[in-house]
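Exam revision sheet. Question 4 asks you to relate a sequence to its structure. Input first:
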Amino acid sequence: MNLRCKLFFSIFVLLLGTGLLFAQEQANPDNQAAESNVTPGEQAEVQPLVAPEPVMQEEPEMQWLWGEVASVNKDAQQINIKYLDYDTETEKEIALTVEPQTTFENVNSFDEIKNSDTVSIDYLIGQNNKNVARNISVEKLENIEETQDVPQAVEEIMKEDTGAQLKPEQ
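Answer key, C-alpha cells:
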C-alpha cells in the first residue's frame, strides 16, 4: 500500500511539474510598465514602428515539356503543343506565349516553327497562369546516309577481327 501511495504521489508531482514547465505568463499592462523602468510620471521613449520587410515572391520554377506543335499563331506570338502528361499518361495540349527574350535552338526565329515540329520547351508559369516560353528547341531529324551495305560492313568487321569470311545466306 505504501508503494502505491509513493507511485501516485510521484506521478502527481510529475504532472504538476510539467504543467508549470509549459505554463506561459499572461501579459499585464501594469506589469510591463514596471519592467520597462518607467516611473508613472515619466513618458516612455517611443520607438518608431518598423514595417516588416516585404516578402519576396520566389521566381517560378522552370518547367519542361517535349511534344509536337499542334498550332502556331504568329500574330498572337502563341504556340500550342501536344504532349504526354507522364503523371496521368494522357495526351494534353498547352498554350505557350513567345516573348522577345525567348531563345531558339535549331531555328533562327519563331517564324520558322511549323505544325508537326517536335519541340523541347523550357517555360515558366507566369501571372494569371500564363505559360511563357524561355527556350524552344526544335528537334531536327537528320538524314542518315548509309555509306555501306549492312551485310558488307559486318563482313569487313569480321575479317578484321578473325580473318574469317562470312558465308552468304541462301
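Marking note for examiners. Residues 108 and 138 are 10 Å apart (CA to CA).
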